[in-house]
Write a structure and sequence with these properties.
Radius of gyration: 26 Å
Strand content: 25-35%
Largest sheet: 7 strands, antiparallel
Number of strands: 21
Number of helices: 14
């Protein structure tokens, strides 16, 4: 036991010493319009990042860093190869962090606005607003799953004796508490004191209780706008939005959120305030996926049913499990209901809007996601046809933008080729170059 403790302490000290050495031997400087990071610990390494390629520079501060009076400076670069990670991450004192950030912003031709606040373009969410956001952001899948766990524990408690019943009730309470924290309270802490301000051509975002985040995003670095509606918010007609830039991977990523859940009228008003360059209201006029796509869904459903039945028979044979005819029929009934609901809901959420300046694509199941992309942010469009869609003369598309892996590829539903020709035409009109479309 003593030997194990000694090994644990040795490993801990080794990791601590290694990190201290790395920290002491890491230097960051600005040289000739570039950020230079030198690490001279075990191996010497020098990385140079041109300031013109910076997509955003952010400050982050957790509770420990607040006590120590330091900030974590996080910088992302416009490059797909590192889109899923932060390119530069270094801890500086509060004074040095703000000084470094302001110097970088100055070299990016972004004026210093930290002490100024444009009230006309300033949005602040109250505690009550954030509380409502938490409610509308609840995942129905997560909520239903946790309710199922609670029901199971209730059944166990009713069938058990008194002692076991008390234990089961305790499990129920813990499960319910974890559910509330995970599905509700988490966002309350995360987006505490959420403010966002549009100053000239930049967004300044600040939020967080235990971890304070201060984010600066140049408008020209925004590659797409994502709008999200959970099942509850769809019923109540509420919307929230996030942005896609290099280093911000999805709506859960740091700094990607720009608006919390609000009514459609308030949401559109705030979007006009923050990003008037894109007409969000116009992009919400989505055209449903072509009705013939239901035929494709039907054929794929038949194929999946056949595969599921083969799998059931194979498992029953291998593990010597007796499956009666009635059980087999019940399993197929349940699967048919699930696949029917899935196809109906995914068909309802699928949509496309081809505007003059931008394109909007929607998808989802219980949660609806809408992506709005300006044509000049599109890398390329890919079209594909499978045997069934080829017979129906339908194409399925995919838009690729410069972003992290979760947002890089945006799928478009089944439409006739003339729809994609319109996208190509609008793209050429906006970007003055030929779209690369792959068949």
């Amino acid at each position: 036991m003593v030997v194990i403790r000694i090994i644990e302490i040795t490993i801990f000290l080794a990791i601590l010493i290694y990190n201290i050495v790395i920290w002491k031997r890491t230097f960051i400087s600005i040289e000739n319009d570039a950020i230079v990071v030198r690490k001279n610990a075990i191996f010497y390494r020098k990385n140079i990042y041109e300031i013109k390629n910076i997509s955003n520079i952010n400050l982050e501060q957790n509770i420990f860093e607040r006590i120590m009076g330091t900030y974590k400076v996080k910088i992302d670069i416009d490059t797909l190869s590192t889109a899923e990670v932060t390119d530069i991450e270094i801890i500086l004192s509060k004074k040095q962090a703000h000084k470094f950030k302001n110097r970088v912003l100055q070299l990016m031709d972004i004026e210093k606005h930290e002490l100024k606040k444009d009230e006309s373009n300033y949005i602040k969410y109250s505690f009550w607003d954030i509380l409502k956001h938490c409610f509308f952001n609840i995942s129905m899948v997560g909520l239903v799953w946790n309710l199922i766990l609670v029901v199971i524990t209730v059944i166990i408690s009713l069938k058990a004796d008194a002692n076991h019943s008390k234990f089961a009730v305790a499990v129920i309470n813990i499960t319910a508490l974890i559910s509330v924290i995970k599905l509700f309270i988490g966002d309350l802490f995360k987006y505490y004191n959420f403010t966002i301000n549009r100053r000239e051509d930049n967004l300044y975002i600040s939020y967080g209780l235990f971890k304070l985040r201060k984010i600066n995003v140049p408008i020209n670095r925004i590659n797409a706008i994502n709008i999200k509606q959970t099942f509850i918010s769809r019923l109540c007609k509420r919307y929230e939005s996030s942005i896609v830039t290099i280093g911000m991977r999805n709506e859960k990523s740091e700094g990607s959120k720009i608006l919390l859940y609000s009514s459609k009228e308030t949401f559109l008003k705030n979007m006009r305030t923050l990003i008037p360059e894109i007409n969000v209201e116009e992009n919400l006029n989505l055209k449903n996926e072509h009705k013939l796509s239901l035929i494709i869904r039907f054929f794929y459903s038949i194929i999946s049913i056949i595969i599921v039945n083969i799998a059931i028979i194979y498992i029953a044979y291998i593990y010597k499990v007796l499956i009666t005819r009635e059980m087999f029929i019940e399993i197929n009934k349940i699967y048919l209901i699930i696949i029917f609901l899935y196809n109906c809901l995914t068909y309802i959420t699928r949509g496309l809007y081809v505007g003059e300046q931008s394109i909007a694509v929607s998808k989802g199941f219980l949660i609806k996601y809408i992506s709005i992309i300006s044509y000049d942010k599109i890398q390329y469009i890919k079209l594909r046809q499978k045997p069934i869609s080829s017979i129906l003369k339908l194409f399925k598309g995919e838009i690729n933008i410069l972003a992290g892996l979760n947002n890089e590829k945006i799928e478009i539903g089944y439409y006739y080729k003339n729809t994609y020709e319109t996208i190509k035409k609008r793209y050429n009109e906006n970007c003055r170059k030929v779209t690369r479309i792959k068949h």
